[in-house]
Amino acid sequence: MEPEDAELMRQGTLDFVSFSYYRSTVVSAKDPDWHLLGGTPNPLCVEKTPWGWAVDPLGLYYCLNELYDRYQKPLFVAENGIDAIDQVSDDGVVHDDYRCDYPAKHLHVIRGAICLDHVPCIGYTMWGNVDLVSRSTGEMVKRYGSVCADMDNKGDGILKRSRKDSF
What we know:
Blueprint: H1 3-11, E1 17-20, E2 25-26, E3 40-41, H2 57-71, E4 75-80, H3 97-117, E5 121-126, E6 147-149, E7 161-163
Parallel strand pairs: 1-4, 4-5
Antiparallel strand pairs: 2-3, 6-7
Helix pairs in contact: 2-3
């Protein structure tokens, strides 16, 4: 970084703010690691993923309002999605209604933030496209995508891809 770069940064502004949203958690002042990814599952959220992540669309609504109030810039939800243990049915298709339902609930609250609160949310991207090895668990059984990749935790499979219902 050069000395003149600092002045350029002071003059520049953001066009929009992007963020990822998956779940809500709660923290305690007594928890020394409150700032890390862990946290305690939100006790107000009844629905959870197989890995215990709270499904909390209302939390996204609050985030949109808080971020817009704070930065007064258009918002872009860069990542939002659900992890699940998908099973290929006898007909060769993964019937993942939960993966269809998850973005529908989150898009509903985005619409509310736009229409009711005038929050300028300019985009939304679903995570993910194709099943992949989970960064958090190192497993293939933890599925994310709307396209099934034929691979298991041991690395067996030919990476054949097929559409899930959520595709």
